[in-house]
Amino acid sequence: MSNYILMLNPQSRDFTEENKIEGFNTLSVVLLTQNASSPLYQPPHNVMSSIPQKISREIIVVHYKLSNTLVGNEEQSELTRDANNRIRHIRTEGEFASAVKRGVEQSHGQFILIMDADQPYSEEVIPELISELIQNPNSIIVVSRFVEGAQAQSMPIAHNALRKGARVIAKYGLKVKNVEDPMSTCFAFSRHIVKDIIFEGKGKDALLELLVKINNNRDITVKEIPIKQKETTTTRKVNFSRVLNYSQAVWDLYRYGRTSKRLNESDIAQQKKHRSILFLSKAGRFFTVGASGLLVNYAASFLMTALIPNIWYIYATLFGIILSITSNFLLNKIWTFEDRDFSPKHFIRQYSLFMVLCTLGAVIQLSLVYLFVEYSHIQYAVSLVMAVAVASLSNFLLNKKITFGEKIWE
Predict the structure, then answer these.
(1) Which residue has the higher pLDDT, 95 or 215?
(2) The CATH number of the domain where 110 resides is what?
(3) Which of 33, 148, 311, 327 has the maximal Cβ count within 10 Å?
(4) Residue 159 lies in a domain
(5) What is the CA angle 167-171-177, rounded to 5?
(6) Average pLDDT, stretch 215-237?
(7) Total-model pTM
């Protein structure tokens, strides 16, 4: 199967803490098992019963690493469904990661929980994962063997040594430093986190591939919760094939990181260029609006004295100033910063801030003219130009940041 971009639900969107899993916000549980009949420790009906009743859910059981005679031509087909159409069984070839990919492709939920169903997790794990995912929808929630409170199965010394070595390689070789257990086979995430990731699904380490490919996304965090496993007499052996698979996965992800870094550097350069152009464009618009304000000020003041002959010229000038500030505000809101929110509360707040900052700009201009002329002995004409330039730039930057809530350099 070719590379697959995980953009599987057109309704994907960002989530906040107010979101709940209801309607199309279904929880999709992908259970992975190497058994052709039923998972060893996490049968789907038990998993179903451990999910809170108020949550809409589906369970996809992916039977992987099966022989060709078992899979046959049914690799892409569903084998069985339960009566409520909420449990599906799928067969596929390949290792754990390809089974994860297959399960996610077949899922519909906005929240996805991946679990190795052949591991003896306790019943509390699933509710805890769901709770953490709802509270942290922009995070990958990992059930970890290496955080405080973890209760994992005891393993042979050789197994633990290889596991620690794999963690060191992931941490320092692949720069995955934000998680203690990057080889976990139980984790959960929101669909929008992976919607643009090309997930290849090779080998055993699905979580490691996911962590590497979201490593540069600062909006996504990783939260680990301690594993709680039941002690059993059955333990999986670490064979030579597993070591080779991990080594191949690390090498592929290392090459991906190198290529991605070069692409990111190019993207960053383009973004900087775009931000520079956007900044200069908005600055040009702001100063153009300022120039139009001078014309509005003069025209309004002159018309007031012409239409009302007995009016005091100070009143006419004040009227012109207020009208020019208002026209400047409206033009900057609509044209310069393209803000279309005219709700009363938002509009009044922005207009008040704009008035205050314009007043501050005038104070800055007067203060600088006084300092340049009186203390630096610079000619008035030069001092005025310098003061207007500084005051205008500060006025633009302050309004950009405070009044219209934009970042300075964009």
Answers:
(1) 95
(2) 3.90.550.10
(3) 33
(4) yes
(5) 120
(6) 74
(7) 0.54
